[in-house]
Design a protein that fits this description.
Elements (H helix, E strand, L loop, with lengths): L17 H22 L4 H11 L4 E2 H8 L3 H13 L3 E5 L7 E5 L1 H25 L1 H18 L6
Helix pairs in contact: 1-5, 2-3
Amino acid sequence: MSAVRHTAGQLRDFQHSLPMALLRAREAAMSRFRPMLRRHGLTEQQWRVIRALAAYQEIDASELAKRSFLLAPSLTRILRFLEREALVKRSSDASDQRRYVFVLTAKGRRIYEEVGPDSELLYADIEKEFGADKLEALYALLAEFYRVLGDSTAP
C-alpha cells in the first residue's frame, strides 16, 4: 500500500483518514465480541473494567480510568453499576483515607472466569482468519504507534 500524497491545505481522502481506519478496525473486532458479551449481560465497557480489575490486586479510580481508557464520568457510572451487582467492592485506601480502591468480588471473579474462555475462543477465531503472524505484527505495530504518538505516562 503506497502513501497517498496531499498538497498543502488539501484534506486527505476520507478512506485514508487514520482515525477512521482505526475506528473501522476497532468496530470489526468489537463486532465479534459484543454478541458474546451481551449473552453474559455485559457491555464492552463493563468487561473492560472487569478485565482491568482482574489484572490488579486493587486499583484506584484514576489508574483504572487510565488503564481501561474510560473517561472518569463513564467509569464512575460503570463502577456504581458493578458495585450494585456485587461484582466490584470499593474500600478506602489504607495509606490515604481520601482515596478509594476497587477490587473484584468473588462474584466478579466468577464472571471474569466465565467470560474469559468465550473471549479466548473469539481471539482464536480472529487469529485463524487473520493469521497468527499478522496478528502479532499488528499488536507490535499498534504498541509502537502508541509509544511514538501516545501519552508517555499511560501504560
